From TrEMBL:
Pfam families on file: BAG
Recorded coiled-coil stretches: none
Protein name (record): BAG family molecular chaperone regulator 4
Annotated region (Disordered), positions in chain: 1-43
InterPro entries, per database record: BAG_chaperone_regulator (IPR039773), BAG_dom_sf (IPR036533), BAG_domain (IPR003103)
Residue ranges of every copy of the BAG domain listed in the record: 43-120
N-terminal signal peptide: none
Keyword Chaperone: yes
An example Gene Ontology molecular-function term: adenyl-nucleotide exchange factor activity
Length: 121
C-alpha cells in the first residue's frame, strides 16, 4: 500500500505484499484476501486489490495510538479515503457480484475509519 504514496509510514515492508498478491492469486490463494482468488473480472479484481491494501492499513489502525492531529493519523485517514475513492471508480456494469463486493469493501473501510477515529484522543 505504501508504495503508492512513498510517505515512509511506519511499516515500509508492507509496500511489498500488494504487488506479490496478484502473482499468488492464480494459485491456491482462497484464504488470502477472501473466499475468492483475484478475479479475471476487471471490476471485481480492482475491488480485491483495494481490499488487499486495506487489510494492510487495518493492521496500522489496530496499532495506532495518538491524537487526531498526529501525522500518522492524518496519513492513515487519507490513505483509507483514497481507497474509498478508488472503489468509487469501479464500474459494476450491472453485475451484482461486483456491486456487492464494492459495497462490502466500502462498509469495511468506513468501519476502519470509525475505529481509527475512536482510537484517537
Amino acid at each position: 500500500m505504501y508504495n503508492k504514496t512513498g510517505r515512509g509510514e511506519p511499516n515500509p515492508s508492507q509496500g511489498e505484499p500488494p504487488p506479490s498478491a496478484p502473482a499468488q492469486a492464480p494459485g491456491p490463494a482462497p484464504g488470502q484476501v477472501g473466499p475468492q482468488p483475484l478475479s479475471d473480472n476487471p471490476g471485481l479484481a480492482k475491488v480485491q486489490q483495494v481490499m488487499a491494501r486495506v487489510l494492510l492499513l487495518q493492521e496500522d489502525v489496530d496499532e495506532f495510538v495518538g491524537k487526531k492531529t498526529d501525522k500518522s493519523y492524518r496519513c492513515l485517514e487519507e490513505l483509507l479515503t483514497k481507497e474509498l475513492l478508488e472503489l468509487d471508480s469501479v464500474e459494476t456494469q450491472g453485475q451484482e457480484n461486483v456491486r456487492q463486493a464494492r459495497k462490502e469493501a466500502v462498509q469495511r473501510i468506513q468501519a476502519i475509519l470509525d475505529q481509527l477515529e475512536k482510537k484517537a484522543f
